[in-house]
């Protein structure tokens, strides 16, 4: 057998999936174009689509919302452990650890497909509660009890800040959750499927996926992009810096994508809404800085923003701290990871790739006194 070495598995087809399709100029969730889903659905509908394969009708949508509400409250033991994590620990590490710990109090019994779906809904509900409780503890505030009947996005903001968000902010957060819900065989999803292929459980697979998303080459680009923008006091300063950075061949965070060569359409969808939020909040100076970075990169290098570039500024305009950006990504992607876990568990085959050995040729072990 002739082995083909492909660093990073670039170009290697590692499996089949019905969950999503990523291709030049399009992203499909189970056959639905992301543009249509962004315009016509909310995150709860997408969660149902991920787990059950079809968009819900009114009755099924209400069912999903009710089950999320049923599962939002954190076990007392989880809150107790959150109180003892040092304040210096980054939020992504907290989420990774607490998802694993919360798994000890999983209220769902069984391992059939429906039990896995229920466990996925439970995890989807728990992650925002973990993030919000940690955030409030760090700020000296008591956690807020979930309030039934709110959308998933509105609930997240309510748990974080203790007051109901305005419709525009909640709708925009919901849009980011829809855009972040799924993206084929990316590093964290592949991690989830590899763990699943050993016949491990959903919580372990999601915790592993969070660990993969924590790496700066995968998750965290929205946070990094906003950190970059925060360096500039004006559009002129930003424009000058980006031209010099390109000359130095520095990576500009929030631009380019492994599978999109002509622009990430999710970025275009989000950017339009983000601009409206900036206008509403009287923060147009951020748009000037945003464009001052975006336009030279596109003009000089023909590299386009990915979804993380507008998402960073979107979350900043919402008043969200930087340390929450990637954890919010997690709260959306749990849906996609769970869909892939379900798919991998059917007709499973253990992932076991080959490697090319480039070390020493076979040799003998010399006596200890001759080494």
Kindly estimate the percentage of residues that lie in beta strands according to DSSP. under 5%
> CA-to-CA gap between the ends?
39 Å
Assigned CATH architecture of the largest domain: Orthogonal Bundle
Per DSSP E runs of 2 or more residues, the count of β-strands stands at 3
- Percentage of residues in helical conformation: 55-70%
SSE order = EEEHHHHHHHHHHHHHHHH
CATH topology of the largest domain: Citrate Synthase, domain 1
Task: Count structural domains.
Answer: 2
Produce the secondary structure layout.
Layout: E1 20-23, E2 26-29, E3 32-33, H1 34-40, H2 43-52, H3 58-71, H4 76-82, H5 91-102, H6 113-138, H7 152-161, H8 167-180, H9 187-197, H10 202-214, H11 221-229, H12 235-247, H13 265-280, H14 284-301, H15 308-317, H16 325-345
Antiparallel strand pairs: 1-2, 2-3
Helix pairs in contact: 2-3, 2-16, 3-6, 4-5, 5-6, 5-10, 6-7, 6-16, 7-8, 8-13, 8-16, 9-10, 9-16, 10-16, 11-15, 12-14, 13-15
Can you walk through the features of this model?
It is a single chain. The protein is an all-alpha fold and 371 residues long. The chain has two domains: 41-217 and 334-345, Citrate Synthase, domain 1, CATH 1.10.580.10; 221-317, Cytochrome P450-Terp, domain 2 (Cytochrome p450-Terp, domain 2), CATH 1.10.230. The chain has helices at residues 34-40, 43-52, 58-71, 76-82, 91-102, 113-138, 152-161, 167-180, 187-197, 202-214, 221-229, 235-247, 265-280, 284-301, 308-317, 325-345; strands spanning 20-23, 26-29, 32-33. Strands 1-2-3 form a three-stranded antiparallel sheet. β1 and β2 form a beta hairpin. α6 (113-138) packs parallel to α7 (152-161), α6 runs antiparallel to α16 (325-345) and α9 packs antiparallel against α10. The radius of gyration is 22 Å and the shape is globular. 44% of the residues are buried. The model has no long low-confidence stretch (mean pLDDT 94).
